[in-house]
Design brief:
Elements: E1 4-6, E2 12-14, E3 18-19, H1 25-38, E4 42-44, H2 52-60, E5 70-75, H3 82-96, E6 101-106, H4 116-128, E7 132-138, H5 142-152, E8 158-162, H6 170-179, E9 182-186, H7 198-207, H8 211-221, E10 225-226, H9 233-240, H10 249-256
Parallel strand pairs: 3-4, 4-5, 5-6, 6-7, 7-8, 8-9, 9-10
Antiparallel strand pairs: 1-2
The structure holds nicotinamide-adenine-dinucleotide.
Nicotinamide-adenine-dinucleotide (NAD) binds next to helix 9.
């Protein structure tokens, strides 16, 4: 059993999960099945990943009961707006072959389009209708979160954002803590760019763990949920095996110095791709 984090709506989410971005559709069901067999209980997908059929198949065909698996999907930018979001969510559930998802996210705010409030109202409706258990956002900056909450009074349970040692997002994470929002880290391994940094390498050597495990453990110790991706069984197992050791306060402080504010992905204030 992996650790779980409480959500502000009474549900909870596994702290570690399996990310499905860039997992080829033909191997997605098998990857999900392997992940579930190894102990993953959170599967992070999205309409735009093009592999929701495999995500759903892996979940539906598993011996792990549905109610023990936490399924996330996301509304892509081209579906933003109230009615288009309702239709996109139904289409996503149909591709997944599921009656509900555990978490539905707005994938990006696309602030220039000005549709994320209408989109959020649709997510509120989908939750009321039982099509998702919890609702949240992804790639929202502080002004987007403040507007969303100010206009609707509904606080997202989670914000899935890019976090890795080179982009630690301390300010946004502090705002999440104040608002009762769970931080979930995407591209948590930061494209391996910190694997050789002395702060990571030293902690890996001391603990007998790999650089990837040290980084994933850092995410856990900053209180985030984390969704690394691997399609190899050994990689999946390695990434899950981070609950039998801890980084020391000194190691955490050393890793804090690696923050450069540099992104692997796009800037949410400007990303509007349809
Ligand atoms: P990641 O940080 O999980 O890294 C994946 C890469 O690292 C792959 O090349 C993989 O082979 C390699 N890797 C995995 N485990 C390793 C290990 N133990 N040692 C060495 N290399 C290892 O990156 P990601 O896939 O970009 O992000 C994770 C998940 O986050 C995605 O799959 C997706 O679900 C989600 N995501 C969300 C958004 C968003 O906008 N909301 C954006 C990007 C990713």
């Amino acid at each position: 059993m992996t650790a779980r984090l409480r959500l502000n709506d009474g549900h909870s989410i596994p702290q570690i999960g399996l990310g499905l971005w860039q997992v080829p559709a033909v191997i997605t069901a098998q990857t999900v099945a392997t992940g579930l067999r190894l102990g993953y209980r959170l599967i992070d997908g999205a309409a735009v990943y093009g592999n929701e059929e495999g995500q759903g198949q892996g979940v539906r065909c598993s011996e792990v009961p549905r109610d023990q698996i936490f399924v996330t999907t996301k509304i892509w930018n081209d579906a933003q707006g109230h009615d288009t979001t309702l239709r996109a969510a139904e289409a996503g559930l149909a591709r997944l072959g599921l009656d509900y998802v555990d978490l539905l996210l707005i994938h990006w705010p696309c602030p220039a389009r000005g549709l994320y409030i209408d989109t959020w109202r649709a997510l509120i409706r989908l939750r009321e209708d039982g099509r998702c258990r919890s609702i949240g956002v992804s790639n929202f900056n502080a002004p987007h979160l403040e507007r969303l909450i100010g206009e609707t009074g509904v606080v997202p349970v989670l914000n899935q954002i890019e976090v890795n040692p080179r982009l630690q997002q301390a300010e946004l994470r502090a705002l999440h803590d104040q608002l009762g929002i769970v931080t979930q880290s995407w591209t948590p391994l930061g494209q391996g760019k910190s694997f050789d940094a002395p702060a990571i390498a030293k902690a890996a050597q001391r603990s007998g763990k790999t650089p990837a495990q040290v980084i994933l453990r850092w995410h856990v110790q900053i209180g985030a949920s984390v969704i690394p991706r691997s399609t190899r069984e050994a990689g999946l197992a390695e990434n899950l095996d981070i609950f039998d050791f801890a980084l020391t306060p000194e190691e955490m402080a050393d890793i804090a110095t690696l923050d450069e504010g540099t992104r692997c992905g796009p800037d949410p204030a400007r990303f509007e791709m349809l």
